[in-house]
């Protein structure tokens, strides 16, 4: 089985995907929420703000992983760090290109933002992470960040991370793009993804417990109930990548935007 890396913004169904992978191959160890992921996430987001910091951080990852492929992962907290390291490693060691799978898992930005707006206050630890921990999420710069609402910041994060994953790996022969909405239990796309990472066609695509790490409280509405102002802000920030991934074509959405 080839090493695989599922890169995402979070809130994209990676908990569900990791369960499905391990259900199909119980010899696979923990691939989600690894012990050092939180610290890797913070350092990677700091590095994302500066080219010099990124070069230093990539070098530190090279020493951490000893210039070899890191453990397979579905953990979104490792996604930015792995992007830096894998891009550098795979270009330097081209013999690894045929032995590596990179899956870019994307979610509709409107659902991503709504989900995060609800998720960030679900637990006390989440409140600390999203409101008090510096660089828990990528930051656009102090002045720009202070001018943003939390809603706008999540829009910016979706665009920033997905553009990073896409631009860094679209060239790579082992890069595959999947949309969360297509990975429902029993779906053809889920079967394709599992076959890719497990290296076999005979896979189980159903899970008795289909809890996607769902949000219980839903004080922030989904996009069909947004105001034109909210929709316009997301469209301004995310429209380019939305179209690239096939989102935003609904008549209801265009009506909210006034198109």
Shape: globular
CATH T-level topology: Rossmann fold
Summed over residues and divided by their number, the pLDDT gives a mean of: 92
**How large a portion of the residues is in β-strands, by DSSP E?**
5-15%
Backbone CA Rg: 18 Å
Number of helices: 11
Strand element count = 3
Distance between the termini: 48 Å
By secondary-structure content and strand pairing, the structural class works out as mainly alpha
How would you sum up the major sheet?
Answer: 3 strands, parallel
Number of domains: 1
**The CATH class:** Alpha Beta
Approximate helicity band? 40-55%
Which CATH architecture is right?
3-Layer(aba) Sandwich
Order of helices and strands: EHHHHEHHHHEHHH
Low-confidence stretches: none
Widest sheet: strand ordering: 1-2-3
How is this structure best described in words?
The structure is a single chain. With 259 residues, this protein is mostly helical. The protein has one domain (4-257): Rossmann fold (3-Layer(aba) Sandwich). It is 50% helix and 6% strand. The protein has helices at 14-24, 37-47, 51-64, 79-92, 109-119, 124-131, 142-146, 150-169, 188-198, 228-245, 251-257; strands at 4-7, 101-106, 175-179. It has a three-stranded parallel sheet with strand order 1-2-3, with helices on both faces. The longest helix has 20 residues, at 150-169.
List keywords for this structure.
single chain; 259 residues; mainly alpha; Rossmann fold; three-stranded parallel beta sheet; 6% strand
């Amino acid at each position: 089985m080839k090493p695989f890396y599922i890169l995402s913004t979070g809130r994209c169904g990676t908990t569900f995907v990791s369960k499905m992978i391990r259900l199909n191959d119980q010899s696979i160890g923990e691939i989600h929420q690894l012990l050092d992921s939180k610290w890797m996430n913070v350092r990677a987001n700091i590095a994302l703000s500066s080219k010099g910091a990124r070069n230093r951080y990539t070098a530190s990852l090279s020493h951490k992983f000893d210039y070899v492929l890191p453990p397979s992962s579905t953990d979104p907290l490792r996604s930015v760090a792995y992007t830096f390291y894998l891009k550098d490693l795979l270009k330097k060691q081209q013999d690894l290109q045929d032995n590596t799978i990179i899956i870019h898992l994307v979610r509709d930005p409107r659902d991503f933002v709504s989900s995060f707006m609800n998720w960030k206050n679900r637990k006390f630890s989440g409140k600390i992470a999203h409101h008090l921990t510096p660089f828990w999420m990528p930051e656009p710069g102090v002045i720009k960040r202070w001018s943003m609402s939390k809603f706008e910041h999540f829009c910016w994060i979706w665009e920033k991370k997905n553009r990073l994953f896409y631009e860094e790996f679209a060239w790579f022969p082992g890069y595959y793009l999947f949309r969360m909405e297509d990975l429902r239990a029993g779906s053809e796309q889920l079967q394709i993804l599992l076959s890719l990472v497990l290296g076999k066609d005979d896979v189980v695509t159903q899970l008795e417990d289909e809890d996607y790490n769902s949000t219980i409280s839903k004080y922030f509405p989904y996009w069909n109930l947004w105001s034109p102002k909210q929709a316009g802000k997301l469209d301004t920030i995310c429209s380019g990548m939305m179209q690239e991934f096939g989102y935003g074509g609904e008549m209801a959405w265009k009506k909210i935007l006034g198109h």
